[in-house]
Design brief:
mainly alpha, 9 helices
Length: 153
């Protein structure tokens, strides 16, 4: 028996939590300072171009990555977390993006990983490679952990 409806319900529930955060959370000075400390000047300029909610989400992801990834080259995973949604269109409304994400009818949203890769590849190829793959299916190891953190944050 297929459980496609359960997957959709879980995605809707996750989006409801994110929607609450979208409307209630503020991008704080502490978040800004955290990103500025972890990123190079060029990376930080890219971060500043992101929408308010995407910045909040990415900082939360980076903090979780920092807590959960003790492995090699931790800084590239933190950089990737802070910039992993830099390829999302800033002008698309949150509700529109959420509905698209739930049903994977996502022109311009899930290819944001490829767009993010293109934006970052000449600045930080290691982080760009992570960003490029962060929505791939069947990931393993640190990539899978990164994806789980992204989905929960």
């Amino acid at each position: 028996m297929e459980k496609w409806w359960l997957e959709i319900f879980i995605k809707i529930f996750e989006r409801m939590k994110q929607t609450k955060a979208y409307f209630t959370e503020k991008f704080t000075k502490e978040m800004e300072d955290y990103a500025k400390e972890k990123l190079t000047n060029n990376e930080y300029k890219i971060f500043l171009l992101m929408g308010r909610y995407d910045k909040i989400h990415c900082v939360k992801c980076a903090m979780e990555v920092e807590k959960n990834i003790d492995k090699f080259k931790k800084s590239r995973w933190i950089t990737a977390a802070l910039l992993h949604d830099c390829g999302k269109p800033k002008n698309k409304g949150y509700i529109s993006r959420s509905v698209n994400a739930i049903f994977h009818n996502i022109k311009g949203l899930y290819n944001h990983a490829e767009t993010g890769y293109i934006i970052l590849k000449d600045i930080n190829i290691d982080a760009a490679e992570i960003i490029k793959r962060h929505h791939d299916e069947n990931l393993e190891g640190l990539y899978k952990l990164f994806q789980e953190i992204d989905n929960k944050s």
